[in-house]
Amino acid sequence: MAYSEKVIDHYENPRNVGSFNKADLQIGTGMVGAPACGDVMKLQIKVNAEGVIEDAKFKTYGCGSAIASSSLLTEWVKGKTLEQAKQIKNTDIAAELELPPVKIHCSVLAEDAIRAAIEDYQSKQQG
Amino acid sequence: MSPAKAPIYLDYSATTPVDPRVAEKMMQYLTLDGVFGNPASRSHAFGWAAEEAIEEARAQVAALINADAKEIVWTSGATESNNLAIKGAAHFNERRGKHLITVKTEHKAVLDTCRQLEREGFEVTYLDPEPNGLLDLEKFKAAIRPDTTVVSVMHVNNEIGVIQDIKAIGEICRANKIVFHVDAAQSAGKVEIDLETMPVDLMSFSAHKVYGPKGIGALYVRRKPRVRIEAQIHGGGHERGMRSGTLPTHQIVGMGEAFRIAKLEMAAENERLRMLRDRLWQGLQDIDEVYLNGDLEQRIAGNLNISFNFVEGESLMMSLKNLALSSGSACTSASLEPSYVLRALGRSDELSHSSLRITFGRFSTIDDVDQALVSLHQAVNHLRELSPLWEMHQEGIDLSTVKWAAH
Q: Contacts of residue B335 in chain A, CB cutoff 8 Å?
């Protein structure tokens, strides 16, 4: 499998690896995928009072493309409002990383992860 | 490949380089000044010389497995041998019955051949091995039916390197008048094979797993008691009608020389390979959650198949660019397909996904092992840093209790 240089760069130097405290009200956590399928992505966002994502962290179990997709996503969501972050499409991720067709599902998983993190954050604010 | 750039070769079960002594000999059977004749040419010295070389090689192959040279049939490799043996015996015995037995961890050359026979109206039982990869003889006996005509069980598994008890399985087949075929592609030159004492009827061999050339193999066909098979390739009636086609003298001479060397050096080589294998396995013991796949004792010396929990196989391979090895996981489509061999052992999908097969051989060195250890430690640490599953494991969460949102 030939990976694009961008995938290799994110794989070798992943950005924003780590975890926030899940219980913190400022934090939204999205965990998607399943070990049996070969990939699990955990994406966390830290949202400030203005509704802007000021920080993001991830951990991913999966192939190089899955790791790169989530790493790229953390870079993209920083500084965006929740509404703007919701607009990120899997096709944007796939295009940026030049993912081959068999790896498109990695970018789909990343899109699912940001949506799940936003939902988690919003449900916490209501609770 | 230039030595500076080439990764360390740790995939000897996939194929082996040709031993220089073998290559040297093969070159004498190609050109005008060498023995280039058609061994089937009976009318001149070129043919006679080639035939003599073929018969010497036949005796060399037979010597490694303690068989008679007349019991060796040349083929293009173990895949063809498996096809010829299983289809040939099933078809020949069709009137007696149409049931075969094999094991789920067999090589595709056996499994796909059985599938083809199923399409032709045969019935096949695919047995599950035990979690250590070995066949339970009682379960095997229970699968035998009055119409069972052929059993095919591999000697050494290509992925996990476990050694089946061929003698015991063969005795059960004998008692039930069943033709017994053994795929020995991964065992020749690595495990003692004595066909005087092993009740095997048909046995498949390959040259390129034993430092011989690719494209040549053999099928052992027992003469006492005589085993009959139907030919699959028809032509000039070569190989006593069992396999037609002009014999590739240089390939055959290469296989003969490779098997001759294997007989001489097998014992010493196994000791060295076991030392390398154990050094690697010992060196990995400081990594948490590393599992060995398949039995450690009933196993060839040069094989290590391991799984690193909470690390995905393809990304692991990506981190091990300096090592040439095999992964059990083939993530080439949206639906990942973990190794069917590990699955048949009952390994979880996660562990099947993260498996690596490391196989050592004649040209492996201690330095190769030590470099592999450094790379494996780095790769596993890097990926576990990144792994949410590892984090959950560290927090004491039992992953089997988590409800995953499968996609």
A: 37
pLDDT (0 to 100) of residue B326: 87
How is B335-380 classified by DSSP, letter by letter?
A: S-B--HHHHHTT--HHHHHTEEEEE--TT--HHHHHHHHHHHHHHH
**Partner-chain residue, chosen from A36, A59, A63, that has the shortest CB–CB distance to B314:** A63
- C-alpha angle with apex B142: B139 to B145, nearest 5 degrees? 140
Alpha helices in B214-284 (DSSP H): 249-283
**Residue B383 structure tokens:** 């990926």
CA distance A14 to A97: 13
B318 close to A (CB below 8 A): yes
What is the per-residue pLDDT across A13-34, written as a single tens digit (0 to 9) for each? 999 999 999 999 999 999 999 8
* Residue bearing tokens 């969501």: A77
Residues shown for chain A: 127
Distance from CA of B331 to the nearest CA of A (A): 8
Residue B18 DSSP one-character state:
P
Structural tokens at position B221: 């066909």
Structure confidence by residue, pLDDT tens digits, B101-129: 999 999 999 999 999 999 999 999 999 99
Tell me which residue in A31, A60, A112 faces B386 most closely, judged by beta carbons.
A60
pLDDT number for residue B350: 79
Distance of CA B94 to the CA centre of its chain: 28
Nearest CA in chain B to A113: B405
Instruction: Give the Cα separation of A78 and B127 in Å (integer).
Output: 54
Q: How many CB atoms lie within 10 A of CB B267?
A: 9
Alpha-carbon dihedral B101, B105, B108, B113, rounded to 10 degrees: 0
Among B329, B334, B391, select the one facing A59 at the smallest CB separation: B391
Q: Judge whether B6 is closer than 8 Å to chain A, CB to CB.
A: no
CA distance B27 to A73: 58
